Amino acid sequence: MITVTDLRKVYRQGKREIVALDGVSLSVPQGSVHGIIGHSGAGKSTLVRCLTLLDRPTSGSVDINGTVLSAVKDSEVRAARRRIGMVFQHGNLLDSRTAAGNVAHPLELAGTPKETIRERGRELLRLVGLEGFENAYPSQLSGGQRQRVGIARALAADPDVLLCDEPTSALDPATTDEILDLIRDLTDRLGLTVVVITHEMHVVKRICDSVSLLEKGRIVEHGPLTDVAARLDSRLAKALLPLPPAEPVLGAGGGDVVDILMTGASAQEPVLTGVARRFDIDLNVLAGSVETIGGTQFGHLRVQLSPGADTAAVLDYLRGQGVTAKAIDPAEAAEAGEGEL
């Protein structure tokens, strides 16, 4: 597993200090995929560099399966890095080497016998779906195939952890899903612990078990994916279950606007019908989405009540049905881009 504790990284430019990471802590259990999402400048690249010991953290620790990597001596850094397989945005393959040659490279650096390298290379390329492509050069491969070679290379030294830095941002949507499904499958089959650095919520929804939102060097929201999605007020939940902007009827023509989040069994219940019958009111559905996240079904609805409806009573009733609900400002309902962080 991965345990990051109070990680800080401060860069100095003359007398000026730039705090890139400000007390980052997270824990990723073995065999799970954790997504770290954030905008450019949030600290994602610095976190990658500290996790891989390309940069020493100013303070705090990085622990992988009981070994504190941040405390290893400079002479032991290379051996420590072998515990982490790295998948890059563009594959970062060596153009002068074949697919098998790229996979072999980290094994050659480790002094692995040639016959073992050949067998391991064939095994890994078969594992990522590239059997028969051993002698192909990067220029002869598609973007998705190059990324598969990059994944095979990352697995060559049999690492404990796979760290994926924007692994699909350069790929088309269909290929993106293929690569994400491959990472998820490898995680489950090999028992890997995976950290995915991304700015795309689709990546998180597709393969992650848990997620952290990194902002200005701090983790501001985090948790298991299903728990985060169930927090109606959280920014991650809004990004996981986005709603399009919807113009409510203002003034005397329309009542209060209510957001409703249904989870699991409640997502399949006729909740709105129950409200309409119990309070003898009309409900105008302004927007809605249904998603399956982490194996759990979620339904997110935005509705407008009839004028004069007892909003407090409606909210109490909904909560009594195991549904998360809150009244919102009508102006909030009309805001665009709710699916963004």
Can you describe what's shown?
The structure is a single chain. Helix 3 packs parallel to helix 5 (143-155), helix 4 (114-127) packs across helix 5 (143-155) and helix 5 runs parallel beside helix 6 (173-190). The mean pLDDT is 89. The chain is elongated. The longest helix has 18 residues, at 173-190. It is built from 12 helices and 14 strands. By secondary structure, it is α/β, with parallel strands linked by helices. The protein folds into 2 domains: 2-229, P-loop containing nucleotide triphosphate hydrolases (Rossmann fold), CATH 3.40.50.300; 248-333, 2-Layer Sandwich (Alpha-Beta Plaits). Residues 2-241 form the ABC transporter domain. This is ATP-binding cassette domain-containing protein. GO terms for molecular function: ATP binding. Pfam families: ABC_tran (PF00005), NIL (PF09383).
